[in-house]
Amino acid sequence: MANRATRLKGVTVEEIAKTSLAEAGIHTVSLPNGTRVVAIANTLWPMHDRNMHVEIMKFLADYQPDLVVLLGHMVNNEAFQALFESEKNYLHRPEHPPEVKAALAAGSFDDQVQYLRREASKYIGSFAVGKAKVVYIPAILTEHKLVKRVSQEKERRDNYVDNHPEAADQPSDPLRKLPIDFRNFLYLNKNPRVRVLPYNSALLANNHTLFMIGDFKRRNEGDAALVEWQQRHYPAIIRSLDGKLASGWFTTTEHTQPTLTVMQHQVHEIGFLWDEVQNGQLRDYDRRAQGFFAGIYVDGELFGSTIDILRGDDDRRSFYAPDGTLYTEDTPGNMPHGTTLSLEDEPVTEDDDWVLRDDDGEDDDEGEEVKPAAEKKSTRKPAAKKKKPAASKRKRS
Fold first, then answer.
1. 308, 281 Cβ separation under 8 angstroms
2. Sign of CA dihedral 44, 50, 54, 55
3. Which of 90, 122, 161, 198 has the fewest other C-beta atoms within 10 Å?
């Protein structure tokens, strides 16, 4: 007989949206000679690395790029889900970012979502520094999930209001609609310097450089971009997805007659710029590294490399720009949590087994220890004893 504990159980698994590059689209752009390009990805706003964002803004103001490509995972879906999901986590208690706290205090559910949407719009628009045009490619695993979860919650609340019009507490306003198009969702339709492409699509510059997110990973840094080149054979591929940082150059043979002629190729993987302290769910993965890409087109070729962010002896992080300028954060950021221990006795504290009483609707500052209830004595009288029936007497004849 089958064990009840090991029987197959019905489990509902959420379907993960997927697409191909052919379906999402490869969008083209022609860039003139001397065009400067910067590619950034994996920031997960508002859980992003705030110190490095300040330094990158300084770099963009000095470098004056013509094109800034944002390759997915720029806005964290979990920030929006924090507005309506109260998940208990006994591992740690993360602190909400300032933007999420302000959104929670904005009022109704619709007001909260609207506030966070506008703040995300400001963040994406901040990359349009100077003359830069921003091309934003949202990712399926993050940005698409964001719109999906918020839309589902909005629909659930609106259905409740429609079915319970007499309820005193209305969780949402059905008259306020939520746009599904990601460009409108983040109010980027109001920004003429930002172009939003379809989820997980790609940007092909000068029929030479393919900017893309990607949909598979490899263990070693640079390997995924190399495999991508083996499939697509573009002269240059700049890829993001999982936060590894790498740059590689190699040649292939075009022909050998009358002499050897080679073709130049390059592949790049963009690192991450999220806050490691606030994104512990991503775990420790030693192959990841912080960084971004910067380059310039000259005579039809792209000259550029990924820029790594390194921590110095004083724990502050820095990166070198292509022109040799050093950018360093003011104070050490993204430092791991921790305390200093000693061999002294640990402080002794009171037990935490207390119950707070609520008298007249107000909580007392002091609690009372829970005492076992006194044993109640039974007030029921014992049942009366039944009398034995009298023995019958027989007459003697």
1. no
2. negative
3. 90
